[in-house]
Predict the 3D structure of the following.
Amino acid sequence: MLSSSSPYVYSFALFLSLFLLFTLAPQFLPPREQQSPVPLQDELDDLHLFHQATVASSGKISHLGFTNPKPKIAFLFLTNSDLVFAPLWELFFQGHYQFYNIYIHADPSSKVSPPNWAISANFIPAIKTERASPSLISAARRLFARAIIDDPLNLYFALVSQHCIPLHSFQYIYKSLIGNPATAVRAFLTQPSHPSFIEILSDEPTLESRYIARGKEVMLPEVSFEQFRVGSQFFILSKRHALLVLKERKLWRKFRLPCLDIDSCYPEEHYFPTLLSMADPEGCSHYTLTRVNWTDSVGGHPHTYHAPEVSPELIHNLRESNSRYSYFFARKFSRDTLAPLMKIADSVIFRD
């Protein structure tokens, strides 16, 4: 027979259960604001596309009938807004159509208007992208795959955003990356003489919080904390590394998982540096060629340059680096900088 105090016991037990539920649940359940997972159909479509790219790359360039093959740089624009700086990029590319290709992944939910370019550009089939989500990794991989399938002479792949501008002439960047076109094709095919230019950091102050953003042990055993790396969202990959990214499956299964701590989760800044650091650290520069000013960042976004800041001095300062290369590109620039940038394009930006 229950004592008269039983109702109090039940009430206390119920109160304790509710307290524990509301206290501990956030540690085990994802918050409402977590990113959406990559849809299964998108995954399947991507796997098919990546397989096509791998097969397409298996043939030697020397077997394709080129009498004087010229290596090309594939410029990959990853955007969710209009390409405001298209006029500046058009000047950059002008007269060099044999040495580049342009591919654009435009978020279909953002109503991006095709730029009125005289130069040829390829808008590839795109998916919706979210900031700080694995969808940005998928978009970059899709750009690599389309570029590899489209032209076997694409040997370098420069990932840039709609807010990026060039800091040098096309000739300067091409010569710096490719070297002698007559010997570069064979070098790309036979030896790893052309590195990828990607930032790979192991001492970033927020490294631990980024590593456990999906949970304390979720990344194990594929990626230990000692193997985890971070870096810039934008980079330049050689063809062998672009193919490595398309063939990779094991790490992707971890980095595609939604994050519990969205304030520390930037999959696109983690996946590529970690993968390349694990697979071929000697074949990477460990620094980026895209200049970004983080001195007064807001909400995870870098400093945005506005029209009054544009000057020859700014361009010269943005080029300066501590590596053997000058910076090639810079971000982040607002819409109102296009006019002043165009005014100094020929006299400053494209005069190396």
Q: What stands out?
A: The CA atoms of residues 78 and 105 lie 5 Å apart. The mean pLDDT is 88.
